[in-house]
Each structure stands twice: as C-alpha cells, then as structure tokens.
Protein 1
Amino acid sequence: MRSRILRLPYPLRLILAIFALGVGAGLVGMACHYLLELVQLVAFGSDASNLWKQYDQAGGLRRFLALGLTGLLAAVFWFELQRRYKILSIKQQMNLVGEGEPKIRLQIAHAAAQVAIVGAGASVGKEGAPREVGALIGGRLSKWLDLMKKDRKLLIACGAGAGLAAVYQVPFASSLFVLETLGIAWTSRNVLLILISCYLADFLAQPLVGNAPLYQMASLSWTAGSFLQALLLATVVTPLAMGFAWLTKRASQNRTKDRKILWVLPIVFLTLAVVAIDFPIFMGNGQVMAQLLLSEQSLPALPLVLILKGLFVYLLLRNGAYGGTLTPSFALGIGAGYLVTVIANRLGFAFSPSMGMLLGASVFLGTTLKAPLTGATLVLGFTGQPLLLSLPLLLASFSAQWLSRILDKIREKAIKPLLQNRRRE
C-alpha cells in the first residue's frame, strides 16, 4: 500500500499527510481530554462539571494524598525514563529530521505523564502533551510519505499546533502559535497547510472536548479608555511576565534529571499538598484561579496568591516535572491585570476590571510566548470574546513586545560589563 501511495504526485502526498495529521491530532486531543478527566475522577471524585467544586468537595486529606502520591510516582517515572532516553522537545524533533527519530512509546508515555500530573493537581499546564504528540505524529507521517526535509519540519510544527487546537478548541490562535514560535515562514502555502491541520483537529475533537469557551465570562466591548488601559497594563505587567518567563526558562534548562529527582520532586509535591489542604486554589494549571476572577469572585491576598502560584510552577519545573506554562501564564496575567486595574481605579481612573484581566492576560501570554498575535487571539479564544475586542488586546500585546525588547537591551548592556570583568579576573 505504501508503495502505491508513494507513486502519487508530491502535492497529493503532502495534502494526504496534512489531512491524516489533522485526524491524528484530533484523536490526541480527545485522548488527553479522557485521560485528564479519568485522573481527576480517581483523584477527587465525580463532579467534573466544575473543577473548583471537585477540588473543594474532595476534602483536604484527599487532596493531600493525591498530590503526595503523584509526586512519588512522577519522580520515579521521569528518573527511569531519562536514564534510558533523552526527552525531545518539539524544536528538537524538528532539528533531528533526517538524523534521528524520537521513540514513539517513550514520548507518548512522557506526554501522558504530563497530563496525569495536571489532572492530579500539579501547578503546571497540560498543553505540552498534545503539542508534543501531535508533532510526533507529524514527523512519522511525513517520513512514511517520503516528504522533503523542509516539509517534514513543517508537518512536525503543524502537528504541534493541531494538538493545541484540539485540546483547547482554539484553531486560529494555534495556527498563529506555529508561525510565531516555531520558526515557520509566513508563506501562503505554509499558512494554508497549518490552518487546515489546526481546524480539522479542532473539528474532530469538538464533540468530546466541546466548543464552549474554556473560561466563562460576560461579553465585553471596548471604549476609548480601554486603549489607555492597555498601555498602562503593558507598562506594568510586562516586567512581571518577563520575570516569570526567565524563571521558567531557567528552570527548564536546569531541570533536575539525575537521582536527586527521587527526593526533591516529591518534596515539592508534598509542599503543594500541604498548602492545598486549606487552599486548593493553588492546584492545577491555573484554570480555577482564572475562572474565579473572571466570574468576579474576590480572592483574598491576591498578590500573595499570584506569587505563590508562579513559585510552584517554577519549583515543579526546576525539580524534575514537565509541563506547559501557557495556562499558568494566562492565570497570572488575569490576576496581574485585575490588581493593576484596581490600583489604578483607586488613583482616580475608571477602568473596567474585566477588561483589565483580559488585557493583563494578553500581555502575559504575548510576553512569555514571545508571540503577540498568539497571546491576543488565545485570550479571545479562551474567553469567547467578540473579534472587535482584539483591538485593545493587540495594542497591549504589541506594546508589551516593544517594551520587553527595550528591557532586554538594557539588561544586556548592564550584564555585559560584569561578564567582561569576570573573564578578566
């Protein structure tokens, strides 16, 4: 059969690969959804319609036991896996095209573990898993269909975007994610193939995952003041987002992988478990915290909550866990945007707290992903807001990108003399 397919004209093989990839990524999205709900059911009980209630009704002891046991299992799993195999990121899979192939079973097991720890309450994102498995499918399909090297890299990137689209139902934002973060050229051919794969995966996963926005909130409209608010939030929130991005990047680069993981990772999970006995708000990928704020429910000591949430993300990644930072970044942006808006209103402004949360999330996502278009469209997709709201969101996101570049240059100029002095010494 393969020999017959390989006789097809190259454009047909490429289209066949894209459609097969969309189907495969849609199935991956459904599988991640099933696994997440299964783990949550086992860990916390049956009320899956509301994650906050599920955490709350489980009780402090059950939350403690779920997180404590998860920490032990995760530490043993990743220690044993990394003794035998080097886990490959999406960009590493792209760079290895023609030189080596990731091991399917081990990469899938690694992805499943990421979803499982989030389901059990770990403070990291689940989006890494569907992206990585989608990329894996893209790589294998393109090799099987004997595509050119550049198109094999494209299929891997398309798989990452399609996996993200399937699990979060944000196909347009996922397409922009591929173009802005994975080094794919903005040609009409590439854009078309990326859109096909993302929208097909989204469509296939929709009956199970659902097409409702991930976060529920009232529909907003912008005013003239929204643009001033966007500039204010970009100015204040961007340094916070840059700090979080720097910490999580450093954590991932220096992640514990040796035997030390067997005790440091369980300690971090136990610390989170102890806090979660009385404060389940710190559990999960930030969805609970963001939804409470978007529902206009107050959170006492919100600045401390945001600091501790970001700290738990860092500690988990630094001490051996794997997971995404997309949804934690969204939650931290929501919280930071709300805080800045409340403070500004006390100083005499009349800004909308709801608009402030969305603008803060757009700034935070655009900065941490280094993808302003993706950040703004993810906020729209996650919250189901009208397209016109993209105007202030894009202003906030692009202003944050401009400011982050300036701050990066200032930091480099400040650090360069210090590095030169160290070399002389």
Protein 2
Amino acid sequence: MRIISYNVNGIRAAITKGFLSWLQQANPDVICLQEIKATPDQIPLIDVEISGYPYHYWFPAQKKGYSGVAILCKTKPNNVVFGTGIEHMDFEGRNLRVDFDDFSVMSLYLPSGTNIDRLDHKFKYMDDFQNYIDQLKKEIPNLLICGDYNICHEAIDIHDPIRNKTVSGFLPEERAWLDAFMKSGFIDTFRFFSKAPHNYSWWSYRANARANNKGWRIDYCLASEPMRSRLKRAVILPEAKHSDHCPVLVELD
C-alpha cells in the first residue's frame, strides 16, 4: 500500500505543471493533498478519474482560492469524514479522513504562523487537534496522519537552525508541541527509516533555495504506534516539482 502526501500549493497550477502525469507514474493507492486552493467545480475531475483515481474527496476552505485538502483513492473507502466538527478548524478546510477496513488516512494542513494573529490561531489549532486525535485514536487505533504540519521537528530537519530559531515553523514552542504529539503515540515514518540530514520537503521560492537545497522538512506521514510493524518504506520525493513542496511517501504492508 503506497500512500503519498503532497502540498500542491494550488491544484490547478500543479496540474498545468504535469501533476496528473506524475501521479500516474508515482501510482500511489492513496494521495493526500493540501493547499488545493480550489473548489471541486474548478478542478478537471474527469482527468483525475482518468489518471486512476475514481474516488476523490475535496474539502475546500470557505474562502475562495485558499487552503483546502483532498484525498484521492484507487479503491473506495468505507467512510469519509470531512473536517473535525470544530468550527474554527473546519472553515479553512484543513482535515479530511478516509476509513478503510483496517486503517484510516487523514490529510492534514496545519496553519502557518505568519503573524501574531495567525500564530495564536496556530497554537489554538494545535491544542484542539491534539485533543481531537487523542479521542479519535480510541475509536481508530490504526491511523496515518499525512500532511503539511508547518513545523520542523528537529535541527536536522532545517537547513539553518540557528538563524531560523525565531521564525514560525521552527519556534521552540512549535517544536515542543510536535515532539509531544509524536510521543503521544505517533511514528515519524521518514525518520523511522532514515537519520540522514539534508532531507527537506519545502523550499522558499526566494534566493534559489531549492537548487541549493536550503529547505525545511515540514511534511510528514505520521503513523500511530499500532502500525509500526506494517511500515515498509518511507521516502521524500524531491524530483517532483509541481509546487514549493515535494511529496512524501510511506509504504505499508
């Protein structure tokens, strides 16, 4: 079972850059998308289905051209859950879950903290999300939360930890939250297989950052502890260039 997570930074723009051809080649069973920035009526859904994904679920933000998540599946899930039921989280279209027989996959787009107001919103979201997941795990122990967490976990996950220590995405409080979230029962699947440095999933468009690999690893596939024995492989796919992010992949038994 191949599962990919990809912040496409606008699904329509990504499609014009060859996203659907790449998707057919990558051939995941499930792909979680973030920052789709579109409503279903603005997306060529027939082309998505022709690419091999007859089951596709879209949860856009109420604000046009902003945020939003989606999940595309080769096989039909048993159940689809749009949002969390928490209004301040759901109006920006940040959580979507599909349930299969023996595990569930969530597409997550955690807010960024670009200014003080958004940073406060991000921390409230993080706290409420932790509480939501704590309850959800009791119902669904086999849970994979894939997406853009907008946080680098450790110094190894960012190209310049010293200069970025006061920047949202690498603040001590954000890192502590992500560390505690993982310790509450989740495995960072990429780090489960690789401790190597210089592996990133997002690069600024400025200063030729991607060409120089001056990036951040902020996209994760986090697997709940009961799924540990099913983890087979996890990699980052930096050769895919339809966005300022790149996809991350996990394979399950």
Protein 3
Amino acid sequence: MIKKEMIAMLLAGGQGSRLGVLTTRMAKPAVPFGGRYRIIDFPLSNCINSGIDTVGVLTQYQPLRLNTHIGIGIPWDLDRNIGGVTVLPPFERNVHSEWYTGTANAIYQNIEYMESYNPEYVLILSGDHIYKMDYEVMLDFHKANDAAVTIAAMPVPIEEAKRFGIVITDDEHRITEFEEKPEEPHGNLASMGIYIFTWKVLREALIANADQPNLDFGKHVIPYCHGKKERLFAYEYSSYWKDVGTLYSYWQANMELIDIIPEFNLYEEYWKIFTKCETLPPQFIAKGAFVEGSIIGEGSEIYGKIYNSVIGCDVFIGPNSIIRDSIIMNATRIGADCDLNKAIVAENAKIGKNVKLGIGDETENETDPEIYNHGLVTVAEHSVLPDNISIGKNSVVSGVFEAEDFEGGMLAPGKTLIKAGERR
C-alpha cells in the first residue's frame, strides 16, 4: 500500500469576487502576479521546497485557466508516478452529488483521494496567498507538541481581527479559545487558513460534520476538534504573508516587489518560486526608453518610460508612453503617447494611442466602491480602448470599445463601463 507521511490539499476553487473584473473569467489563484507568476505558484512552490510531493488541487470556479497552468505539474517537479499534483474538481456520484459548498466540504468530498495515500498528516492550504513557508518546520512543531491540529497564525492589527479566525493560546502555544470572525475579538493572533491535521482526527471531524451546510474549517471543523478536547496548537509565523483578496491589496503586494529592499524577495536562490514559462525572447528596452524601479517580463518591448511598475511577459509599450505605479499583465499592447497612473491592465488588453488612465480627483465608484477604490483604474482582460480617451480614478472598464462609447473622449472618475455580456 502507498503511504505518504504528509500530503497537501490546496483549496483553489474560489471566485475572488473582491478582485472585480480580474476574476470574471478565471479563479483567483490563476490571476497573474509579479510579472511572470500566478498566485497559485506560491503555495505550490512552497510544497515542493518543503519536500511535499503529493498535492491535490481542488478547483471549481472558472477552472480552465488554472487547469491549463498546472498541467501535470512539471514546473514544480510534481509530475510523479506516485503522488505529484492532481486536479480535483467536483464530480458526479451515484447519490448526493453537489458542488463544493465550503472549504471543509471540498476536502470531505475527496476523502477517497486522501485515503489512497494513507497519510499520517494532511496539510490544508489556500491557493490565494502570497508567502514563503517551510511546511516541514511547521510539521516538526506539530509532532513536537503531539498535536491533533496545528493552525498557522500571525498577529494582525486589532482593528482588522474581526476579518479572521482568532486564536487565544497559553504559554505553550496550545489553543485555549478559537473565534471565527468575532465581532469583538479577544486577541489579534489570526489564523492564516493553513492547517496540519493528524489524518485520523481530520477524517473523523469531516465525517462527523458532513451534514453541516457549507461545511467550513473555521466554523465547524476547528470548533468540533476544540470541543472534543483535541490538542490544538498555534504555529506563529512572522515572515511575509499577504492575502491578496482585494484589488487594492493585490496592487499593494505587486508594488512591494519593487521596493528598494523588497519585503518579499522573489530572487532568493534557496527558495525559488516556480511557474509555467512560455518560450519568449529576452526583454527589449529601446533607445530613448527608460525603466526605473520596475519588473519587466520576458518578451516585452519597451519604447516608453516605466516607473515603479510591474510589467508582465510579451507586453508592448509604445513610444512616449509613461507608465507609473501600475500593473500591466501579459500580452497587453499599449500605443504611443499614453499616460497610465495606478492602473491595473489585465491580460491581452489593447490600449490605443494617447490614452490617459487614472486622471482627475478620487470619486467613489458608482457600482462597487468596496472593490474599485484607492485611486486605481482597472481594465479587464481582452478589453480594447480606442485612441484619444481619458479614464478617471476608481473607474473600471471591460469590453471592446469605440470612440463614441466615451462622451467627449472621457470616462469620469468613479465610473463603471462594462459592455453588455461582460460581468463585473
């Protein structure tokens, strides 16, 4: 019988609605990050760097881009005869077929997959966080404490604590209280959504709670284990960890990569981040072009000026265009004489000549102010913007546009312009 000490289950089915038009056609873990990566590359790379060679990736929402990116796991050395990476979408059974309805429900529906490896421990991960973690060190902590469940946790500002599961621990890091998104938190040590379970404990908890609607780790499984007096411990993590769940936090995380001394370093030799790479020529910076404090992906041609921006692969930026504090994703084409400030331009967009993005005062977005804010302007993938238009801050556009779609050549700050058939 196959036996693995620890396998990983990577939850990658989330829609990521707070990323707005970036996740209209793809799951959040498939969103590009850092010029050449996708968000899911980080937990996958953590697994192989930690010596974990068996990973189940649970997909659901818009999985095509994610499935294509993962393939058979070659970039992460996860193309194994025994183990490796396996994509696990919901599937039809003889009885009780359903979509994944919660984080723990998704794991419960794949009990047979986990049992096939007869693991001693199961690592539960989210596919939408940016960080580097050696899960082997966390496993050593789990073993040393003879724990049933170990929860990775880190301090957060007390005013943000209500957004997280909060753990209260004693002097030995044993969890004495667990509150899922409490209105009045008793502490600020927040669960990161990274768990190690002793397999028999996880299996029992999943089966015992299988009938719970929207079965969830924070709401059901962890409280169940705590109520049974299992040994729950908090593994405190103190390095960089970013939940890129909002458009602004996503933009911030990209900008942090290009700090003079980046808090999150993509270039460490001993902890590489792996990804699926296209065969592209080197970057080309033309005579008269200028690049300062930026990341430029392979195959990109730069004829303009780039300041403090993250430019993806196979991007074209025309002469006299100026890009500041922006994220330009793969295969985008930007014409001459453009001026982009705090723009997020998704993949395969085409921007005409003399286009200005991010102008004017900040005005609250008219449809989704909780998504489109902080002065950002967002352009959805495959969008086409005509020549000689201006788009204000906190705006979002999605679709193939003509000049007449912009009255007076302008979209005012805070506006939403999404063509019929597109989604926010």
